[in-house]
Amino acid sequence: MVALTSVTPHSSSSYYLHPRFHNTAMESGACCMTSNPVGFSSRRLAMSSMSLGLGIRSAATKQAKSPAEEEWKIKRALLLEKRVRSVDVKEALRLQKENNFVILDVRPEAEFKEAHPPGAINVQIYRLIKEWTAWDIARRAAFAFFGIFAGTEENPEFIQSVESKLDKSSKIIVACASGGTMKPTQNLPEGQQSRSLIAAYLLVLNGYSNVFHLEGGLYTWFKKELPTVFEE
Fold first, then answer.
1. Which positions fall inside the Rhodanese domain (predicted)?
2. Residues 150-168 pLDDT 10s
3. Residue 176 annotated to the active site
4. Taking a C-beta distance cutoff of 8 angstroms, is the pair 75, 180 a contact?
5. Where are the domains of the chain?
């Protein structure tokens, strides 16, 4: 895919001139751009463009990496440092009943409505792609290439939505479909990342101090036929 590019001035004015050319241009009352003359090297031309302060900006450039996109080993290290503990589904149910723990279901809203534990709160960590910037169009095309026509993106309002429902002292068990794990195995020495572990990472980054993680995910919860609410 060819990225669309645009040339933008280095400053906010209508054009920008390097101080080296300022006096000559102002005295002549004009500024002109010429094609590359014979014998003028591409390197010198590139240096001249840089001195004129012209920047090439890609319209389809990926946005800066968000905390959720941090490397898994860095996320895992912080989760272990903050003593985020994984619990199985039966212990999660007991904690919910006896110790006022809240299950935070971070799956998409549609999945939550199909089935979820009683009393669970839904804040999706990923949502359908909403915007139509060049980067978003490129992502939609990439999903479509693999036959996925409902591509998702990180929910930028995830923490804000959680904060509107749960204060920083709340006792939270974060759950997704698969669960993932922080436990090392022979094939996965750093465990396996999941949506719930990413969500737990974001929560501890933002000051939540009582964060647990549902090992085995809601798939295991439903498989063991634990209490479930069906909305649709």
1. 97-230
2. 556 779 899 999 999 999 9
3. yes
4. no
5. 5-58, 67-127+154-223
